[in-house]
Amino acid sequence: MFNMPLFDYSFLSKILPKAKIKKGFRKAKKSYLNRVRLATSLFFFGMGFCFSTWASRIPDIKSALQLSEAALGTMLFALPIGQLLAMPFSGNIVTRYGSRTISILGLFLYALCLTFLGLATASWQLAVGLLLFGFFGNFCNIAVNTQGVYTQQLFDKPIIGSFHGSWSLAGFCGALTGLLMLAIELSPFQHFTVAFGFVIVILLTNYKFMIKVKSKPTAEKSTYSFWKNPDKTLLWVGVVCFCGMASEGIMFDWSGVYFKEVIQAPGALVVLGYTTFMISMASGRFLSDLLVARYGSKKVLIVSGIVISLGLYMAVLLPFMIPCTIAFMLVGFGVSNVVPIIFNVAGNTKNVPTGIALTIVTSISFLGFLIGPPLIGYIAELTNLKYSFALIGLFGLLISLLVSRLKIFN
After folding, report:
1. Which of 20, 201, 269, 345 gives a 20 to 30 Å CA spacing to 114?
2. In Å, what is the CA distance from 283 to each residue of 169, 170, 291?
3. Average pLDDT of 48-57?
4. Contact 336/281 with Cβ under 8 angstroms?
C-alpha cells in the first residue's frame, strides 16, 4: 500500500474481480511470466523510489526555503490533499482506460513532479508541487497495485507480498541515493532529475510486459449500510491503523529534519535516520507473514506497538547519533507490521462486506497520514521537535492497548 504510497493496496486481490487476461498470457512460458512479474515489481520499485527520493531531501528544502517547523508542517498538508482530490475519480479512470495505461502514464507524471519540487524557490511553489505529487501518486498507486493483482492471477503461489516488499526496498535505495547525492553536493533539483531519468529507464525497459486485461469490475452487492448500523469494532480497528500510519508518516517526513536539527548530524548523515528506518521497515514487511503465522496477529501487533513507542522515546531521551539510529530502526520494524495485519483482519470481517470494511478502515487510517506530519510541525513550533516525537510515541502504546482489548484479534 495505501502509504507506501499512503495505502497498502494488497487488499485489492480480495475485492477485484478476476480479470479476463488474454490467452497469450495463460499459455506463456514460465520465463515470460517471470519477466511480467519483474516488470510489475520494478513499477512498484519506481513508485517507492520517487517517494523516498523526495523524503531524503526534505531537510535541505526546508533550509533552502527557510521554513519553520510549523511552515513545513503546513506545506506537508499539500501532499495528502492532492491524494484526496484524486481519490473520487482515480478508480474510475483506471477502470475506463486500463491499469496498464494509467500505470505507465501515472509513474511518468509522478516522477516528473519530483523535478517541480526541486525547482521550488518559494513556499507556494513547493505546496503546488506537493499537491501534484500527491495527485498523480494516487493514480499511480491504484493502477500499479491493480497490475499487481492481475499479475498474481498468473501464478499459483502467493507473490503479491513481494511487490510491496519492492516498494519498501526502493525506500532504502532512495535514501541511500540521497546520501550519495548529498556527499557529492548535488542540489535537490539535480538529484530529482537523476531520479526522473532512472524512472524513465524503468518505463522504457518494462512497459511492454505490463498486462493488458479486459475487466468489468462490479461493485460488491450488499444490503449492509454503515451509516444505519455502524460496526464499532471496525471503527476501533481503524483507530489502530490510524496510529500506525501516523507514526509511519512522521518518520517519512520528519526523520531527516530530526537528525539535522536535534541530532545535528553532519553533512550527508542527516538522512541516516531515514535510511535505517526504511531498511527496518522493508525487512519487517518481508518477515511479517512469517511472524503472524508463528505468533498470531494479536501478539505481533501488541509487540509492534510497544516497539514503536520504545523507538520514539529512545530517540527523545537519547538524542545522539548511534542511539537515535537504533531507535529509528525500532520504529521502522514496529510500523511495518501494522497496516498489512490490519487490512487482512478488516478484510475478513464476517459481519461487514470486504469492500465496505476496507473503505471504513482506510478512511479512518488515512487521517493518520493527513494529520500526523503537520501536527508534528505545529507542536515543534510551540515547544520543540523532541516533544512532538514524544507525543506520537503515545500512539504506539495506544495500538498495544486497543489490540489487547479488541476481540476481533483473538
Report:
1. 269
2. 8, 12, 12
3. 90
4. yes
Grid coordinates of 49: 523510489
Is residue 301 within 8 Å of residue 324, measured between CB atoms?
no
Contacts of 135 (CB under 8 A, 6+ apart): 82, 83, 85, 86
- pLDDT-derived band at 217 (thresholds 50, 70, 90) equals very low
Q: What gap in Å lies between CA 38 and CA 27, rounded to an integer?
A: 18
User: What is the 3-state secondary structure of the chain?
Assistant: CCCCCCCCHHHHHHHCCCCEECHHHHCCCHHHHHHHHHHHHHHHHHHHHHHHHHHHCHHHHHHHCCCCHHHHHHHHCHHHHHHHHHHHHHHHHHHHHCHHHHHHHHHHHHHHHHHHHHHCCCHHHHHHHHHHHHHHHHHHHHHHHHHHHHHHCCCCCCCHHHHHHHHHHHHHHHHHHHHHHHHCCCCHHHHHHHHHHHHHHHHHHHHHHCCCEECCCCCCCCCCCCCCCCCHHHHHHHHHHHHHHHHHHHHHHHHHHHHHHCCCCCHHHHHHHHHHHHHHHHHHHHHHHHHHHHHCHHHHHHHHHHHHHHHHHHHHHCCCHHHHHHHHHHHHHHHHHHHHHHHHHHHCCCCCCHHHHHHHHHHHHHHHHHHHHHHHHHHHHHCCHHHHHHHHHHHHHHHHHHHHHCHHHC
Amino acid 379 reads I
Model pLDDT, residue 286 = 76
Q: What is the spatial distance between Cα 245 and Cα 386, in angstroms, rounded to a whole number?
A: 19
Mean pLDDT over the full length of the chain: 81
Instruction: At 224, give phi and psi (nearest 5°).
Output: -70, 135
Q: What crossing angle do the helices spanning 123-152 and 78-97 adopt, rounded to 10°?
A: 40
C-alpha span between 405 and 296 (Å, rounded): 15
Residue carrying the nine cell digits 531527516: 256
Give the pLDDT of residue 355. Answer: 46
Separation in Å, CA 252 to CA 103, 255, 276, 278, 341: 24, 6, 11, 9, 20
* pLDDT the model gives residue 404: 92
Least confident of 58-67, 238-247, 288-297: 288-297
Query: CB-based contacts of 185: which residues, under 8 Å, 6+ apart?
Result: none
Burial of 130 (0-12, 13-18, 19+ CB in 10 A): buried
Q: What angle do CA 299, 305, 308 make, to 5 degrees?
A: 135
